[in-house]
Amino acid sequence: MKSRTKDHTRNRHLRWIIFTFSVFALSSYGSTFQARRASEPNSADAFTRAVHEYNANRFTDAQNLFSSVTGAHAQDAKAYLGKINSYKEALETAQTMLNRKEDEMDTASLGFAIREIQRALSIKADGPYRPAELLTRAKQLQAKIAQGERARAAVRDQELCRKTLDASNKHLYQEAKRYSCLVAYDDPSFPCSGNEAAYICQEMKELAASHPGKSPAPSIEDSASDVFTRAKNAYDSNDFQQAQQLFEQVTGEHHGEAKEFLDKIMRYNSAIEQAADANRASKYDDARLRYRQAASIKADGPGKPEEQAAMVDLQQGIDEFYSGRYPEAEQFLSTYNQESPGKADLAHFYLGASKLAQFYLAGGQDRSLERRALDEFREARKNGFSAEGQPVSPKILTAYQKSSDQ
Q1: Helices (H) and strands (E) in the chain — how many of each?
Q2: Averaged over 98-108, what is the pLDDT?
Q3: Separation of alpha carbons 242 and 235, rounded Å
């Protein structure tokens, strides 16, 4: 009887312990769940306000709000940040072109500016900074510069037509063919010796074929043409020093074109030099702009300006991380990863470090932020990145080392 009473009492105690533990566990889970639920509306509210600022063209406020968004809208916020960055970048590049003196402009660079403005308009047609007005101005300038280029071309073609007639009268049909076909290539309908240039070119080809005769001795102009060809080959292969020396020697019909190439080389070198100086001084916006200016002159030029412009984003992202501005660091590092895969491992590492720093600063409550940080670390590890020697906190290094096991 006593044994049965003891068992009954023990069972009552056991049931009480289980009940108490269950209540405690449910209470803890409920508190955590409520905390998470409480943070979600805040993030959702930030996203809603950010979209409102974006639609109202208050891009700076929108960027700050989008950078704070976590949870379900994090990816959407990231997409908006990408749009804002691309929009601003396109208009800054176009504005740089339009700020040049008119005698430094050409139709090709203005065409690039127009495409950049149109790219901004495709992102947000009613966006800030008056892109429609900028587009109108760019098109007007392009038409004006094109008119000047056509006038210069007409003078050049008139001189070539004169040389065609002179060579033809001397029965030097090979030379006449060369001059007339240069005009035809530039403008087939250009009036030359009473006919269109295309007709004269064809006529001179037939006469040259039926009168092979003796080729004239190479003239000074032939030599100049050869120098121009060699200069252009050097320019195309990015040997700007050799190209500059050769372009300075060009005379005759290619003299005008040689001067244009010399101007391009001068502007390109100046932009690259200014970009490097700005980068060393941590003036990242100016450095980025100058590299893009160089790229607009020759995208595959020496020093790879397009890659260098992307590298500025990486450098600024890391700089923002060490300055404790983690949302800004994420913004520039994400932009770099979208533009260039060159050092993706380094960018992913600092993206993870930025997210993890924010996680720790917030008290370690937002587990989704921690998970995203570890995802970035795993991406860095996939690319073989070693965090050894990186001057970050031991907690971040430990998390990075453990990320492969999670």
Answers
A1: 16, 2
A2: 79
A3: 8
Would you say residue 406 has pLDDT above 60?
A: no
- 195 Cβ neighbours under 8 A, 6+ residues apart: 203
Q: What is the mean pLDDT of residues 98-116?
A: 80
Q: For residue 349, what is the enclosing H or E element? A: helix 344-361
Domain ranges in the chain are 2-129, 130-216, 218-303, 324-405
- For 57-119, give the DSSP string: T-HHHHHHHHHH--GGGHHHHHHHHHHHHHHHHHHHHHHHHHTS-GGG--HHHHHHHHHHHHH
The CB-based long-range contact list for 149-154 (8 Å cut-off, 24+ gap) reads: 149/106, 149/107, 152/256, 153/186, 153/187, 154/190
C-alpha distance from residue 92 to each of 158, 236, 287, 288, 312 (Å):
40, 27, 12, 10, 15
Give the rounded percent of residues in the chain with a pLDDT score beyond 90.
Answer: 15
Residue 206 burial class via C-beta count within 10 angstroms: exposed 0-12, middle 13-18, buried 19 and up: exposed
Report how far residue 394's alpha carbon sits from residue 298's, in angstroms, rounded to the nearest whole number: 44
Residue type, 84: I
* pTM for this model (two decimals): 0.48
pLDDT digits (tens, 9 = 90+) for 31-47: 443 444 434 447 788 89
Q: Compute the distance between CA of residue 67 and CA of residue 74 in angstroms, rounded to an integer.
A: 9
pLDDT of residue 127: 94
3-state secondary structure of 362: coil
- Report the C-alpha gap between 158 and 193 in whole angstroms: 10
Provide the token pair at 114: 């127009």
Close Cβ partners of 252 (under 8 Å, ≥ 6 residues apart): 220, 221, 224, 225
Gap between the terminal Cα atoms of the chain: 56
Task: Pick left, alpha or beta for residue 256 (phi over 0 → left; psi -120 to 50 → alpha; otherwise beta).
Answer: alpha
Cβ partners under 8 Å of residue 181, min gap 6: 201, 204, 205
